[in-house]
Structure prediction request, 100 residues.
Amino acid sequence: MKGRGRKEGRERKEERRNAPRSCYAGYFQCAEGLCIPEALVCDGELNCIAGNDEENCAREGKARSCFPGYFQCALGNCIPGNLVCDGELNCVTGNDEAFC
Ligand SMILES: [Ca+2]
Ligand SMILES: [Ca+2]
Prediction:
């Protein structure tokens, strides 16, 4: 029943999605005008020629570090440090257990 700290990063991402863009809904517009599926945004790989599909993540919190004592999952959410290496997957990607 403990909060997992998943919200913070997520909510900010949602805000971005509502920004008016000239791509179809569900697509992200790169700096050079290319439209890529939103699933490719912040997935850790550069899909825009300008690379800004990943750049924004850093600004929105993905590559930003968590509060002291917290661990950052691959998707950018933060979990309490004591959940790292506790034998249970707390990150969606399970990377809190990957480095044990
Ligand atoms: Ca990407
Ligand atoms: Ca864990």
